[in-house]
Design the sequence.
């Protein structure tokens, strides 16, 4: 189990609601640190490095990642216990600009 604090990835040219330069807490369930790093890089987080263990996972975080089917979860505010953990797909999903979504509905 590896816990990281990473900058939130950008979602293209238009800023989305979470593209604020914030950091997110990412938990990865893996056999070792190198496999955790490989899992994150395969998801598109290429500039992730594991240096030390300044913020080890808490027991609650370990429980969260062990009970998630993907084994990779994140949340925006690590200190806020009321925020739920999200699947990594939600972090990596590009935001659809409102203009494109409106044009798609009008054309359909």
Sequence:
């Amino acid at each position: 189990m590896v816990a990281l604090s990473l900058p939130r990835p950008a979602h293209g040219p238009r800023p989305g609601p979470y593209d604020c330069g914030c950091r997110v807490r990412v938990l990865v369930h893996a056999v070792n640190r190198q496999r955790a790093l490989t899992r994150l890089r395969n998801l598109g987080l290429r500039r992730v490095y594991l240096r030390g263990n300044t913020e080890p996972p808490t027991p609650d975080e370990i429980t969260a990642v062990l009970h998630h089917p993907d084994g990779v979860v994140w949340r925006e505010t690590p200190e806020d216990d009321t925020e739920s953990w999200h699947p990594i797909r939600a972090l990596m999903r590009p935001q659809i600009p409102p203009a494109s979504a409106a044009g798609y509905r009008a054309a359909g």
Notes: The chain is about 30% helix and 15% strand. The radius of gyration is 16 Å.
